[in-house]
Specification:
Aspartate Aminotransferase, domain 2; 7-stranded mixed beta sheet; alpha/beta; 39% helix; 460 residues; 14 strands; 4-stranded mixed beta sheet
Length: 460
């Protein structure tokens, strides 16, 4: 850490070991509900499956309805305030309601909000910025989400190689489509290479094309590649899998295996893209994939994704070849939507500013140091793990995990209960999931977070 970070961390230690660690009265749920919010819960229960918009739902005494957000904080419709470490599942790297993004989107609204998937100026500008920074990107296509991006990367790999099978890693998340929803959160351990479907409704054919390997285990990957070499289209990997760091040589080894067996190496950089460096994890770790997928950070809070890489692979979706053998269809009504493109350009312009990533990594380490000090003072058997601006909390774990099974050995029930109490205290992290730090998090945000974290520890 630099000197500024050391000073902030020292302040965090002092606060954690002092007696004054009660959260500010305005922070957190604390059973404060307005009639408006209670009515909104009833409306949601009547209209939405489980009263939710997606695959996650909070405990009854911790759930809320978002009203507004600014910087690293948000407020619910009862007026309760929270410090945010979910950040739109990691999308808000600049923080909420960033002025540059607001300005870019407002200016674009006046010019038009949707043109269909034809050329527009902000899309061209964004493609140039991405290609300039991301090492593997010679050409790219935009999508509306990271899930679409990984789906198209797999389709391109199959079209390019003429093969069907794809190696993914146990515990890796690549979106919500059928090919991705295999062994992402298996309740029982995968029988390598056979995967475990994460949801009902996945056809057997989709399951059979996915081969499951253990992250950080090159011997396992090489054995699968050798066994299925005549039908192996690609290896897809999160360079940092959720919160599991690659062991030295692991990503390099995947590159070697993909080259040896003439298959496509896909880096799913939906999370690591622009979070570790302007060129993503491939720049940070110095390993070149054939294709990369993007999302989250790229849109700055708007629905933007993308897939890019080698020109000879990407050119398979050239629409002038439609109807010819080998053509790969890639399209979407909102692909390259000008509002999302404008927001993405504004986001990357901010990230290009000098010192951005030094500050981002310092923010992440400062938070981890402060939380570790509180756990130590309270004598709680838990570890704070993570890398750069990403972090996680594991109960009963010896240290940094090497694979998904290490995470499964930790006490997940205790983590969910603790995370729920954190929300009540005004510290928002998606229960049981990885959490993030943004460029908007201030020392004051950290001070309030340490107080809330300590209060949750006392409850525990």
């Amino acid at each position: 850490m630099n000197r500024a970070a050391e000073a902030i961390a020292a302040s965090a230690y002092s606060r954690a070991t002092a007696g004054d660690t009660s959260p500010p009265s305005t922070i957190g749920r604390h059973k404060r509900y307005s009639p408006t919010e209670l009515g909104e819960f009833d409306r949601a229960a009547a209209l939405l499956p489980g009263g939710a918009l997606g695959g996650n739902q909070l405990a009854a005494d911790a759930k809320f309805v978002f009203a507004r957000a600014q910087g690293a904080r948000f407020w619910d419709t009862s007026g309760n305030e929270y410090v945010d470490y979910c950040l739109g599942s990691g999308a808000m790297l600049l923080g909420h309601a960033h002025q540059s993004i607001q300005r870019a989107v407002t200016e674009q609204v006046a010019k038009g909000t949707h043109y269909f998937a034809y050329l527009n100026e902000p899309a061209l500008e964004l493609a140039e910025i991405v290609a300039r920074h991301v090492p593997c990107v010679e050409k790219m296509r935009f999508t509306v989400s990271g899930s679409e991006a990984t789906f198209h990367a797999m389709r391109l790999s199959r079209g390019f190689t003429g093969r069907e099978k794809i190696i993914k890693f146990e515990g890796a998340y690549h979106g919500h489509h059928d090919y991705a929803q295999i062994s992402t959160t298996p309740k029982r351990e995968s029988n390598f290479p056979e995967g475990v479907p994460d949801t009902a409704g996945i056809p057997r054919g989709a399951r059979d094309t996915m081969l499951i390997a253990r992250y950080n285990d090159l011997d396992c990957v090489r054995q699968l590649a050798r066994q299925h070499k005549d039908d192996l289209a690609a290896i897809i990997v999160e360079p940092i899998q959720r919160i599991i760091q690659p062991q030295p040589g692991f990503l390099e080894g995947l590159r070697e295996i993909a080259t040896e067996f003439d298959c496509v190496l896909i880096f799913d950089e939906v999370v690591t893209g622009w979070r570790l460096a302007l060129g993503g994890a491939q720049e940070h770790f110095g390993v070149m994939p054939d294709l990369s997928t993007f999302g989250k950070v790229l849109g700055g809070g708007l629905p933007v994704g993308g897939v890019g890489g080698r020109a000879d692979i990407m050119d398979l979706c050239d629409p002038t070849n439609k109807g010819q053998e080998g053509f790969v269809y890639q399209n979407g009504t909102l692909n390259g939507n000008p509002l999302g493109m404008a927001a993405a350009v504004a986001t990357l312009r901010e990230l290009e500013k000098p010192g951005t990533y030094e500050r981002l990594f310092e923010r992440g380490e400062t938070l981890r140091q402060g939380l570790r000090a509180i756990l130590t003072r309270r004598g709680i058997d838990a570890v704070i793990v993570g890398y750069g601006p990403m972090w996680h909390l594991l109960f009963g774990a010896p240290g940094e995990p090497r694979d998904y099974r290490d995470i499964q050995r930790a006490d997940g029930k205790k983590l969910t209960a603790f995370d729920t109490e954190l929300i009540r205290q005004g510290f928002f992290a998606l229960p049981g999931n990885r959490r993030f730090v943004s460029l908007a998090h201030t020392d004051k945000d950290f001070e309030d977070s340490f107080a809330a974290f300590d209060a949750a520890c006392r409850k525990l």
